[in-house]
Known about the structure:
It is built from no helices and 11 strands. It has 114 residues and is mainly β.
Amino acid sequence: QVQLVESGGGLMQPGGSLRLSCVASGFTFKNYAMSWYRQAPGKERELVAGISSLGGRNTNYADSVKGRFTVSRDNAKNTVYLQMNSLKPEDTAVYYCKAGIHYWGRGTQVTVSS
């Protein structure tokens, strides 16, 4: 069955960096656009970044993370990454990986606090 497993979350000080990973299985990974969402307490889930299928030539980002976050994919490893730099307290949320329009991971917690 389809599985998306996120990892790499944790506690980080403001200004620090984290790299999230999402390992996929159960479908042909390279054929799916992938995206990262996040949900902060009391807020709706929002799109953070997306990357197109195959070579991942096209990416898109929420305005709030442009210039700080980078999404990438390694089709040989069935993995999508989210490199997060210059982290801010408002980046605190559960981060979810999504494949296509149907499949979600369970999320990984990111907390940015001093």
